[in-house]
Amino acid sequence: MINRDLVIIGGGPAGLSAAKVALDAGMNVTLIERFNQLGGQLIKQTHKFFGSKLQYAKTRGFEIAKILIDDLSTYSEDRLQILLDATCVGLYPDKVLTVYQYNKYLKYKAKSVIVATGASEKVLAFENNDLPGIYGAGAIQTIMNIYGIQPGKEVVMVGSGNIGLIVSYQLIQAGVKVKALLEASSTIGGYLVHASKLKRLGVDLLTNTTVKKALGKDQLEKIITVRLDDQWKEIPGSEKEIETDVLCISVGLSPLHQLMSMAGADMLDISELGGLVPKKTCDYETSIKNVYACGDVTGIEEASSAMVEGRICGLMAANHLGFKHPNALELENDLNNQLCVLRQGPCGEKIRCGLKKAGEINV
Amino acid sequence: MNKKDIIICRCEDVSLADIHEALDMGYRDFESIKRILRVGMGPCQGQTCAHLVKNEIARYNKVNPESVKIHKTRPLISGVVLKDIAKGDDDE
Questions:
Q1: Cβ–Cβ below 8 Å for A87 and B77
Q2: pLDDT in tens, B38-91
Q3: Among A104, A125, A262, whose Cβ lies nearest the Cβ of B84?
Q4: Domains delineated in chain B
Q5: Looking at the structure, do residues A284 and A258 belong to the same domain, yes or no?
Q6: Would you call B51 and A254 a contact, using CB atoms and an 8 Å cutoff?
Q7: Complex ipTM, two decimals?
């Protein structure tokens, strides 16, 4: 059993940011990451971020990951232990964690735990949805932006949230023809600036439309789309055929809640937050003492808010155990303000509504 | 619509037809359907199929999907070789 002040599960924007603040406060930290490199989804993001300079606006996602990782480079190995290719397979109420890495089953006992596991993609139920050539947007970004492999010749995108819009643009940059973008609701979900860019490049943005069926012998050859009415019912006779070898599904994310659920934390099911999320206090503490959660696992949002939440979590974990961050109070106020600003306006409405349902609105 | 070709749980190869059949047979909650069909018992432990199964149960029972409980999450979260657990930590 390895004893640590703080174990952070997840090396994405939330986990990395939490680690930095907790280390500054004097904690020793173990950071567990399932992938073979740190950065989470940021390493696949080739676009520049919006928002405020405080969350690295105008910087490309993978460059933000580099900044966050560099911020941790000054700490010695006994202060910061980073486990890559390591999956936290068990989290227990007494803050014992089991980690599986390179065929070793490791046990940790932490004084504090921060869960920053992120989210996974939602899938869609339609005929032949298991044909090769049908991907989630995350998989497309992984093979294209991490491994440099073109996923196919042509693509139809399903879903017009920011991920769907941005990945469509990245596909065009990679020389893949985007034949259409389907959106089941009557309006585009993501930012107008991303949608306009696609429109200018000649992509058909089809609202009130979804995929009904995939067709192909050994792999995807074409899809059948169908139009939907205001009640999301299929309109008979509105089916259309589109030839394509790739179909990309980008219909939202759901929090990776399993470790929280397993540990027995009080959970809430809130559709605006993406599904099951841990109930938490304004200090980001879950119903289990000294277990905190931040980032997409507490509700689907942007990487910018995940970073801010991560910093708050790191600060709270330190505070509660008596570790003093050099400018704790100032930092706490500043971070809470940053979150408020990020969640303002029409784009923040969904998250505000979700947080209100969870009873933790501080916006 | 051919429900047999709509895959709900890809880990355990469970189709929409299987889910509807189970619901018709009287298995109306996630835990029961899991025991009958093994949905959520494969490598991803329900992370992929849970929301689809939940929506089908909600639709069948005419309730809000948020009110449908999904299966209990138990350790471990992914496959671990038994030998690796048995041999224990180096410092034990």
A1: yes
A2: 999 998 899 899 999 999 999 999 999 989 999 999 999 988 999 999 987 665
A3: A104
A4: 3-87 (1.10.10)
A5: yes
A6: yes
A7: 0.91
